[in-house]
Specification:
methyltransferase activity, 10 helices, alpha/beta, transferase, two-stranded antiparallel ribbon
């Protein structure tokens, strides 16, 4: 959501920058993503790392790495990580997280620094250091299938990343599962309903073949897939609204109307998922595709 759930925009380098979101606080939204929303995808990260046997020495390149939680989980397995993202506020938090993790490593067996984190436009620099081995895994964990142009806009990043890996390297793409198995789908449709009123894009429902389409556009060969349960659970309705807004999915709706209206309609859409103790619980299924580099 986008990313990421995604998910903030992943835009090609020649695209015009997105208009600012009225009332948005980039730092605050990045913190909401890090503290509330990003952890919802931990089952997805762990399932992928387990299946692909990420371990000591695995070199991981994370596209749209956000505030770095997926990278941090990879380092706990001994992986060497590099992350890129177009959101500077999220990258700043990712640096803090990885640095703090590195500080806790044993001096006798230190990690490889705190990982490498780069803005998306400098992704090519991630493979230019003398003697650097090719990446063993490329991940794009920001869920595809909630932004109007995410299928098209992820392609340039993948094409830049592919030459940094060896032949047959796995590339993992993630997306929403079937709408009937994703309780959050009804809440996300608020974004589509509000933008459609003014015929302004920004959201669309996920399509069954989104991941395969992205792989084909990037010249990747599909080689397996899986589904993972990723329920969205929040302490209360306010946390749920903040977490969902941090994904960027509702940015177009805020531009088309206003933040207060969007918050109100998200809150109403959450009512069926409120529990008696005030918590919010929405079961979801996410899908991932493993593709191979040429």
């Amino acid at each position: 959501m986008t990313r990421t759930l995604t998910q903030h925009d992943q835009r090609p380098s020649n695209a015009a920058p997105a208009a600012p979101v009225p009332g948005a606080d980039a730092g605050g939204r990045a913190r909401d993503w890090a503290e509330i929303q990003e952890r919802m995808l931990v089952p997805l990260y762990e399932a992928v790392y387990e299946r692909l046997e990420v371990r000591a020495g695995t070199r991981v390149l994370g596209l749209g790495c956000g505030t770095g939680l997926a990278l941090l989980l990879a380092t706990t397995r001994g992986a060497r990580v590099t992350g890129v993202d177009s959101d500077t506020a999220r990258l700043a938090l990712a640096r803090e997280r990885l640095a703090a993790s590195a500080d806790h490593e044993s001096a006798a067996a230190p990690a490889e620094g705190a990982g490498t984190l780069l803005p998306e436009e400098r992704m090519a620099d991630a493979g230019t250091e003398p003697g650097r081995a090719p990446y063993d895994l490329i991940t794009a964990f920001q869920p595809i299938g909630s932004a109007a142009d995410d299928v098209r806009e992820l392609t340039p990043a993948l094409r830049t990343a592919i030459p940094l890996a060896g032949h047959g390297t796995p590339v993992v793409l993630a997306g929403w599962g079937p709408p009937e198995r994703c309780a959050t789908d009804a809440v996300l449709r608020v974004a589509g309903r509000l933008t459609d009123r003014l015929r302004k894009g920004g959201w669309r429902p996920a399509h069954r073949d989104d991941l395969e389409e992205v792989a084909a556009r990037a010249g990747l060969r599909p080689d397996g897939s899986g589904r993972v349960a990723c329920p969205f659970g929040y302490a209360d309705q306010d946390s749920a609204v903040r977490g969902l807004l941090s994904t960027g999915v509702f940015d177009g709706a805020i531009r088309a109307t206003d933040r207060r209206q969007v918050e109100k309609e998200i809150g109403e859409a959450l009512h069926p998922h409120l529990r008696r103790d005030g918590t919010v619980w929405m079961p979801n299924v996410f899908r991932y595709l493993i593709a191979r580099t040429p």
